[in-house]
Design goal:
4 helices, alpha+beta, globular, 8 strands, two-stranded antiparallel sheet, 6-stranded mixed sheet
Length: 136
């Protein structure tokens, strides 16, 4: 059936016929939000939402606002599940470089798990780029 796929992996264990609904969306738009007296630009193009974070401090405030590690994990998992259904991804950028991804294009790895941020894909190369740009 179009728009559906079979679940695989640990969440599908014990449920031999779990079917996940997919409702792909294309988005277009631009929104500005004020966070800690800074402007965060959020743009949507096709299947990707890009969040341009102006400063590292603003990004860290966003993570802290989600609560402790367990609460943050629950929130990220719920948002990721909604993005998966819609076949969307969120790209978080700082200083022009992608520092993290969430949703259908995200591939969380060891760094994400160590930081307690899975299913968020944390990109080490993006973080290094941001830190280098602040120390210049």
């Amino acid at each position: 059936m179009e728009g559906q796929r079979r679940a695989e992996g640990p969440s599908a264990r014990g449920s031999p016929s779990v079917v996940l609904l997919q409702l792909p969306l294309d988005i277009v738009g631009e929104v500005q939000a004020a966070v800690a007296q800074e402007t965060v630009l959020i743009t949507g193009r096709k299947d990707t939402i890009t969040v341009d974070i102006p400063r590292l401090r603003v990004g860290l405030l966003g993570l802290r606002a989600a609560g402790g590690r367990e609460q943050r994990s629950k929130i990220l998992s719920r948002v990721d599940a909604a993005l998966q259904v819609a076949s969307l991804s969120v790209r978080f950028r700082m200083a022009g470089g992608t520092v993290a991804m969430l949703g259908s294009a995200a591939r969380p790895g060891l760094l994400s798990r160590l930081l307690g941020l899975a299913p968020l894909e944390v990109r080490l190369s993006g973080l290094v780029f941001v830190l280098r740009s602040y120390w210049r």
